Amino acid sequence: MVYHKFKGLGIALITPFTPTGEVDYTALRRLLDYQLLGGVDFLCILATTSEAPCLTADEKQRIKDLIVEKVNGKVPILMGCGGNNTAEVVRQLQQGDFKGIDGVLSVCPYYNKPSQEGLYQHFRTIAQSTDMPVVLYNVPGRVGVNMTAETTLRLANDCENIVGIKEASGNFTQIDDIIKNKPERFDVISGDDGITFPLITLGAVGVISVIGNALPKEFSRMVRLALHGEYDAARHIHHRFTELFKLLFVDGNPAGVKAMLNSMGLIQNELRLPLVPARITTMGEISAIVKDLNIKC
Fold first, then answer.
1. How far from the centroid of its chain's Cα atoms is residue 221's Cα?
2. pTM recorded for the entire structure
3. How many separate helices (H) and strands (E) can be counted in the chain?
4. How many other C-beta atoms can be found within 10 angstroms of the C-beta atom of residue 112?
5. For 18, phi and psi rounded to 5 degrees?
6. Nearest CA to 41 among 153, 196, 244, 180?
């Protein structure tokens, strides 16, 4: 088992669409070039920010194949594979195509609100069904249940191929408890751009980022400075983006970052229902910040 693959700046990659609602594979290639040139450390594909629930199985396969071919081993790829039906997730892991994929990101079961024991048994069963590294994803604001530090640590200690967690609870006490008591081979990754800097100072190893879609070079510099203990320089970059962190999520994700990428000329501003583009006022504020930052694509 290779540990610590998913460190530094990971990108929660969006899925571009055409005005007629099809996947825009040309824009996806352009976006991947932009990420790789921007110095990202790994990619996280076909998860929440990709609008995966609104993609067909054929689209997911083609997107995965395109990304694997384009990346060509330059950076690790983490792929979403989770759900609220444990047996179905196991089936996907055992029968799906994971060629070129370095690990899977598995979200806490949503809607059916399992107990902590249910969460433990769910992820333990998933880990036992595959040889691939598994990164847990705790995002209570989306799934309706929080995985406690105790449950996370239990999984980290009991399952060798559970190698980390994307923590998006926003609970600093909980996240610090995990960092303090985790085994050495287990990593904590920020799931929230706005608190990545302080989490790295506590011991997180990086972020799976939304804003990095638009600002890979700038955000990767902040992450690397923080990881190397250069906190003053990292804090300066963090504070430059404080307003943008809020704007990108005020109308939901990925509406904000798609508006930003559109203002930069990288994609069409298209989402799939039930998601809709950011409001005109939000788009105007984002465009003004992009102009002020003088970001070059």
1. 18
2. 0.96
3. 13, 8
4. 11
5. -85, 165
6. 196
Q: Which residue has the tokens 């994609």?
A: 267
Judge whether 246 counts as a catalytic residue.
Answer: no
| Cα radius of gyration rounded to whole Å, the chain | 18
Asked whether the predicted pLDDT for residue 292 surpasses 90, the reply is no
Distances (CA, A) of 132 to 128, 243, 263: 10, 38, 38
What are residue 8's DSSP bridge partners?
206
pLDDT 10s digits, 45-89: 999 999 999 999 999 999 999 999 999 999 999 999 999 999 999
Place of tokens 């002020």: 292
Catalytic residue among 137, 182, 291, 296: 137
Backbone angles phi, psi at 247, to 5 degrees: -60, -35
- What residues have CB less than 8 Å from 92, skipping those under 6 apart? 81
Cα-to-chain-centroid distance, residue 15: 13
**Catalytic position from the list 60, 64, 166, 258:** 166
86-106 confidence digits (pLDDT tens): 999 999 999 999 999 999 999
77 bridge partner residues: 43
DSSP classification of residue 164: E
Whether 166 is a known active-site residue: answer yes
